[in-house]
Amino acid sequence: MANHKATQKDVRQATKRRERNKYYGKTTRNAIRDLKAIKTGTEAGAKLKDVASMIDKLAKRGIIHKNKAANLKSGLTKNVNKLAK
Question: How far is CA 57 from CA 9, 10, 22, 51, 70, in A?
């Protein structure tokens, strides 16, 4: 364990950030799973906006890479567009 006060504080902060990032990541994964389970186009379109926003926030915070966020949103949008037809 760290002996310096600043290092101890950094350990505490890193723990908080890690827990928060895990929460946001898991919440977003659950939202993606729920979106994929929707079978109607109108409902999926409304939910897509919220899920895309969650994915963008993950990328902004550095939890996932921006290209991964783009790929996720692209795939979800294709699925929703397929339902709308």
Answer: 26, 24, 13, 10, 12
First to last CA, the chain: 58
CB–CB of 15/21 below 8 Å? no
Domain boundaries, the chain: 41-85
pTM of this structure: 0.86
pLDDT in tens, 8-59: 999 999 999 999 999 999 999 999 999 999 998 889 999 999 999 999 999 9
Nearest of 73, 72, 22, 83 to residue 49 by alpha carbon? 73
Rounded-to-integer distance, Cα 37 and Cα 51, Å: 13
Spell out the residues 6+ positions from residue 72 whose beta carbon is closer than 8 angstroms to its own: 32, 55, 64
d(CA 58, CA 21): 8
